[in-house]
Amino acid sequence: MTRQRRSFSAEFKLEAACLVLDQGYSIAEASRSLNIGETGLRRWVTQLEQERGGSTPVSKALTPEQQKIQELEARIHRLEREKSILKKATVDSTALLMSDELERTR
């Protein structure tokens, strides 16, 4: 029988990492009390330290500020893709109109 992988919300991860960073629990103590793996908790603690240092994480952010930054970066990326598509469409339609005009003048 396969054991299903548990998933945790960003809020839970943040609270768990805060136990270690802010309240002085060791990773072993916090992982035992929360019934989670030490490796996962260690990763969350490292990520929270990086976020507090100003780094935007690669994975889903824990802090609300970094979550907002990730949302805004995703929006910027989407808008840049849309702009690129529109720019290409404009160039293509301009070239098509110019070729039609050339055909009519001949």
TrEMBL record:
<dbReference type="InterPro" id="IPR002514">
    <property type="entry name" value="Transposase_8"/>
</dbReference>
<dbReference type="GO" id="GO:0004803">
    <property type="term" value="F:transposase activity"/>
</dbReference>
<feature type="coiled-coil region">
    <location>
        <begin position="62"/>
        <end position="89"/>
    </location>
</feature>
<keyword id="KW-0175">Coiled coil</keyword>
<dbReference type="Pfam" id="PF01527">
    <property type="entry name" value="HTH_Tnp_1"/>
</dbReference>
<dbReference type="InterPro" id="IPR051839">
    <property type="entry name" value="RD_transcriptional_regulator"/>
</dbReference>
<dbReference type="InterPro" id="IPR009057">
    <property type="entry name" value="Homeodomain-like_sf"/>
</dbReference>
<dbReference type="GO" id="GO:0003677">
    <property type="term" value="F:DNA binding"/>
</dbReference>
<comment type="similarity">
    <text>Belongs to the transposase 8 family.</text>
</comment>
<protein>
    <submittedName>
        <fullName>Transposase</fullName>
    </submittedName>
</protein>
<dbReference type="GO" id="GO:0006313">
    <property type="term" value="P:DNA transposition"/>
</dbReference>
